[in-house]
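for ur thesis appendix - protein-glutamine gamma-glutamyltransferase. copy paste whatever u need, i formatted it the way the template wanted (i think)
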Amino acid sequence: QMGLEITRHENARDHHTSKFSSKELIVRRGQAFIVTFNGTEQPEQSLTFIAETGPKPSKLAKTQATFGISSTVSKESWSAVLQSTSSNSVSISISSPPNAVIGRYKLSVQTTSSGSSSPASLGTFVLLFNPWSSGDDVFMPNKAECEEYVLEEFGIIFAGNKNHINSFGWNFGQFQGDILNICLSMLDRSLNYRQDPATDVSHRNDPKYLGRVLSAMVNANDDQGVLLGNWSGNYEGGKSPSSWTGSGEILQNWKKSGFKPVRYGQCWVFAAVLTTVLRCLGIPTRTITNFSSAHDADGNLRVDEFYDASGNHLDRAADSIWNFHVWNESWFSRSDLDPSYSGWQVLDATPQEESGGIYQCGPASRNAIKEGDVDLDYDCPFVFAEVNADCMYWNYDPATGKKTLMFSKSTVIGQFISTKAVGKDDRVDVTNDYKYEEGSTKERDIFKKARKKLGLEDKFDPTAPTPQEIDQKPDISGKFKVSGPLEVGKDLNLILVLANLQSDAKTVHLNMTAWSTVYTRRPVHEIWKDSISVTLSPKEEKQFPIKISYTEYQQQLTTDNTIQVTALCHVEGGIQVLVQRDITLDNPAIDIQVLGEAKVNKEVDVEVIFTNPIDTEVMDCVLQVEGNDLLRGILEIDKNIGTDDLESNSGMRQHFLLAVTWEASQCNIS
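the 3d part is after this line
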């Protein structure tokens, strides 16, 4: 009869797993952990250990290991080394190889004197990737980056548009409650596991394999994965994607429902949940936001947008340009490619296009994207287009089907590519890690190289514009300027600036529209339209103020707070000119103040102040607060917020008082 005692706290500290709340032993591969046996009367040399994982453990598949006590640690295989002995206990240091399969293991022991009797079970432990170990594929030399990209449970995600970048907090919560078990069950629900469980488990030593499998499992397409996407603007039957504040609630809901897809997600939600899962398993991961992100549906590295004669953006193309798109980067070496392609790898769980027959994307080497090596695994052409595609803007006549190119641009796509700084909440721009400087010769050479590798240079494309269309020059230029605040509840004031580029007068007929959109720039509701005719003297510049009142857009706005304003300029005797701008309105701010000093394990009051910006009562407001180790679960406070009697229309200030016990963490309030 043997008892096993695991010094969990020491192992957890050494293995950077002390943030997990589980009582189970959780350790990282390629590193020793200590177990102590009580009550053994066997000489330690007679002990043989068996560690096994998956439904059909096998030595050949590296899902089973048998090893005895040895004098030294093996770098290549599982091993056990005697640490210390006393009259009634033995401490043994067990090491796994740095390329061991990750997951939940059963550990058992057999003694030579027991002959052919069954091994005695010692219990289970979970083995994770180890970015602190130089032999691991996910090894990250910078310790501060390990802290941020594996251990940090709170993050900042960037959104908005290229003219107006905003950000919001997200609670990844990878160490909370049952999240590790949910992540492991996610692997066991994948299509690969269902088709061949033993082979799937044997590949779980490989971060590129797991990253690809999980990019499929985080979306619900194909496999009843975690999140169902919805970009319609109508979120009945579920939660609006913008109302989530953390991954924990989503993953718990998925499990509680019997693994039915959670409604609803959009790109940042998919990316945030994938961040949680990969950090939980030990793969360094971060979220990346790409502004003016191309969705190139037909793989020609070109995005086509169509507008009718009134200036309405037509939702008729499979291609689109999103205000922003969020994906992931994970850090690991690429054993399948040249070493220069190791490092940050792009993974994308948002279901956009099929890859290998299902909705998954990556890992695509970021270095391969920058160098135009789009022939390398996985999904490099799609990711390359997201940051590099050329844009074509067409006037389309639905009656005749005729399309006319208005203009093309090669510098619109892939701007201000952003991620959170290590150890602080600042934005870091990583655009130069994805491509050479926009407009430079090198950038154009890489674009041509990518086209050539995809066979696009030599292939006739009947949908492409002619060189004559591309070379045509407009007679006028135009732009929308913002005049005043971009806030929900305030009127939207813009100035349309038109300039005559020629030395003779030009008559221009303007059709202007404003539509509410979702952040993918898909039009949802028309808000406003107007038409005017103007004459511009030679080289003259004129300004036209535009006001769209709050009452005009209030009922039409989607939860993304995005409006697209367009002016289609019909120039007499010249080509049409399209002027457009995407507007993102900010929600009213929430002011948070900690009252008094915050001390670990002591209650502290936090005051949350929200000011109603409009002159009518706001009904059915919910203040949602979550914070790891601060609050148990998510706190929701329901409230109606009125207006004050002041004519200044500054709105009603609503104070909420929260009592929080501080256990060294961060809070996310929305």
